[in-house]
Design goal:
Blueprint lengths: L5 H11 L3 E4 L2 E3 L17 E6 L3 H10 L5 E7 L3 H11 L4 E3 L2 H5 L6 E4 L6 H10 L3 E4 L9 H12 L3 E3 L7 H11 L6 E9 L22 H5 L9 H5 L10 H18 L6 E7 L12 E7 L5 E7 L7 E8 L2 E6 L2 E6 L15 H14 L11 E6 L6 H15 L7 H20 L3 E4 L4 E2 L1
Parallel strand pairs: 2-16, 3-4, 3-6, 4-5, 6-7, 7-8, 9-12
Antiparallel strand pairs: 1-2, 9-13, 10-11, 10-17, 11-12, 13-14, 14-15, 15-16, 17-18
Length: 449
C-alpha cells in the first residue's frame, strides 16, 4: 500500500470528492439521485409487486415507485388491513391477495419486493425466481444457513437478479468511505468498531397490533409456513422479529447492516471466526431473542470487527462505524464520513532519564543526527468531513441500482453471494450464544468450518 502524507491525502480526498467546499476541510457530497431529463418509454416500464406489506415492505415500495419507469401492480400480504391500505396508498386498481403464488403467475410482473418475515425469504425468493421474476429481498437474506446455497443456485440457474436490501452498500457515504480507505487515508486498517443503539419500544420491535387482529383478518397458517404450528398469536404475527421462529434477532436485523457496510468498504468476504454474548436486559415481554448483543470477529485481511447492539440504551438512538488505521480513523455517522488523520512519528522517541548525564548527552547528539526535527505541515495531520445532502436517502440509490440491473442484466451491488456472506457472518452471533463457543466460518466457501 502506498503511503500518503498530509499534503497528498488532501489532494486525493479533494479529487475524489464530488462536492463543493463548505468550509475548512468540510465537503458536501453531490447527490446521486438526479435522473436523466428524457422520459422513460412506455415499453421500458418495470412492473413490480410487493410480497409482505408490513412496515418495511410498504416503505421499500414507496421508495421504489419514485424511480422513473417503475409501477406497482400487485400486493400480497397475510393481513387484510394491509391489503386494504395498499389500495388506499397506490389506488383501487392494485391487485391484492393473501396468496403470493397468484402474483407470481401473472405475466405482467417483472420483479418483486420481498418484505416478509425472515423465515419466508428463501421460499418466496426461490418461487419468484423460478417464476421468471427478478427479486429485491429484504435483509437478512437467510433465516437458516441452508437457505443460502439454494437461493444462490436458483439465481444462477434461472438467470434472475437477486438484490438484498442492505441499502447502505449503495450509499454515497459508503462509496466515499471505500474510496478513502483504498486511497490510504488512514493507513493500514486494523480495527472496525460498529454500533447500533435504540431506546424506544418501536426500535425494540414492539410494533402496534391492530384492534381487528383475528384469525379471520390474518391468514395465520400461511404466515406460519415452516414455523412451529401454534394457536393464533397477534403479537407473533405483528411483532415477529421478537421470536426465533420467524426472525433472526438483532443479528439478522441490525448486525447484518454493519457487516454489509464493512464488507463493501473493505472488500472482504467476511470473518474467519466470531464469538458473541448477549441477553435480555430490559424487554422481558415474552420474546426469546436478546435485546443486548456484542460480537467480536477476526478477518484474514488483518483487522478485527467489534459489533454492539443495545436496545436498552439510555442515550440517543444512533448507529455508526469507526475504521481505525495505522495513521488515523474514519467514522461513518450522522450523515457524514469523517477522516481524522494522525500520522505516525518516524522517530521512535526515547526514555533516558535514568542514564548518566554523559550518556544522555551522547544519546541526544546521535538522535538529533539520525532523526532531525521536522517542522513541515505534513506532521500536523488534520481531518476531512464529507457530508451527505439534506434529505439524502440511500434506499433510493439502492433501488436505482436494482432496477438499472433489471433493465441491463448487469450485476447488482448486493447479489445473493454478497447477501449470504453478510447474513452468514451475522448469524454466527446467534450460533455463538446458543453454543457458548467461538464459531468458525469460511467466508470464501460460505460454510461453517
Amino acid at each position: 500500500m502506498h503511503e500518503l502524507n498530509r499534503r497528498s491525502f488532501l489532494r486525493v480526498a479533494g479529487a475524489a470528492s464530488a462536492g463543493t467546499l463548505l468550509g475548512p476541510r468540510m465537503h458536501a457530497l453531490a447527490a446521486m439521485q438526479s435522473e436523466p431529463g428524457k422520459p422513460v418509454a412506455a415499453n421500458d416500464h418495470i412492473q413490480i409487486a410487493l410480497i409482505g406489506a408490513g412496515g418495511q415492505g410498504q416503505f421499500d415500495t414507496k421508495v421504489a415507485v419514485q424511480v422513473p419507469g417503475v409501477k406497482l401492480v400487485a400486493v400480497a400480504d397475510c393481513y387484510n388491513g394491509r391489503l386494504e391500505h395498499s389500495k388506499e396508498i397506490w389506488g383501487n386498481d392494485i391487485f391484492t391477495t393473501r396468496d403470493y403464488s397468484e402474483i407470481l403467475a401473472r405475466k405482467d410482473i417483472d420483479a418483486v419486493i420481498i418484505g416478509t418475515p425472515d423465515h419466508w425469504h428463501k421460499q418466496a425468493s426461490v418461487d419468484a425466481m423460478n417464476a421468471g421474476k427478478d427479486v429485491y429481498c429484504e435483509k437478512p437474506m437467510i433465516h437458516l444457513y441452508k437457505d443460502g446455497p439454494e437461493m444462490i443456485e436458483t439465481s444462477r440457474k434461472t438467470n434472475r437478479i437477486l438484490q438484498v436490501g442492505s441499502q447502505r452498500v449503495s450509499s454515497l457515504l459508503y462509496i466515499k468511505a471505500k474510496e478513502l480507505l483504498e486511497a490510504g487515508a488512514i493507513g493500514k486498517l486494523n480495527m472496525v468498531t460498529a454500533r447500533w443503539d435504540r431506546n424506544s419500544a418501536m426500535g425494540a420491535w414492539s410494533y402496534t397490533v391492530p384492534s381487528d387482529a383475528s384469525p379471520e383478518t390474518c391468514d395465520w397458517p400461511r404466515f406460519l409456513g415452516t414455523a412451529p404450528k401454534i394457536a393464533f398469536n397477534p403479537e407473533h404475527f405483528f411483532q415477529w422479529r421478537k421470536w426465533k421462529a420467524y426472525g433472526s434477532g438483532v443479528a439478522g436485523d441490525l448486525f447484518v447492516h454493519l457487516f454489509s457496510g464493512t464488507h463493501f468498504i473493505t472488500g472482504s468476504h467476511g470473518p474467519m471466526r466470531g464469538m458473541a454474548t448477549g441477553a435480555l436486559r430490559f424487554w422481558n415481554d415474552g420474546r426469546d431473542v436478546p435485546d443486548v448483543m456484542l460480537g467480536l470477529f477476526d478477518y484474514k485481511e488483518g483487522f478485527n470487527l467489534s459489533l454492539r447492539v443495545n436496545f436498552v440504551d439510555g442515550g440517543e438512538e444512533s448507529e455508526g462505524l469507526i475504521f481505525t488505521g495505522s495513521e488515523g480513523t474514519m467514522e461513518i455517522g450522522g450523515g457524514a464520513v469523517t477522516v481524522s488523520r494522525v500520522p505516525r512519528e518516524k522517530a521512535p522517541g526515547y526514555m533516558i532519564d535514568t542514564f548518566t548525564e554523559a550518556m544522555q548527552k551522547s544519546f541526544l547528539a546521535d538522535y538529533a543526527v539520525k532523526y532531525p526535527a521536522h517542522t513541515g505541515s505534513d506532521a500536523l495531520g488534520g481531518s476531512e468531513k464529507y457530508v451527505a445532502p439534506h434529505g439524502y436517502l440511500d434506499s433510493y440509490d439502492h433501488f436505482k441500482n436494482f432496477f438499472g440491473s433489471v433493465r441491463s442484466r448487469k450485476p447488482v451491488v448486493e447479489d445473493a453471494v454478497f447477501g449470504f456472506r453478510a447474513a452468514g457472518a451475522a448469524l454466527l452471533s446467534n450460533l455463538s450464544i446458543e453454543k457458548g463457543e467461538v464459531i468458525k466460518w469460511d467466508p470464501d466457501a460460505m460454510k461453517l468450518a
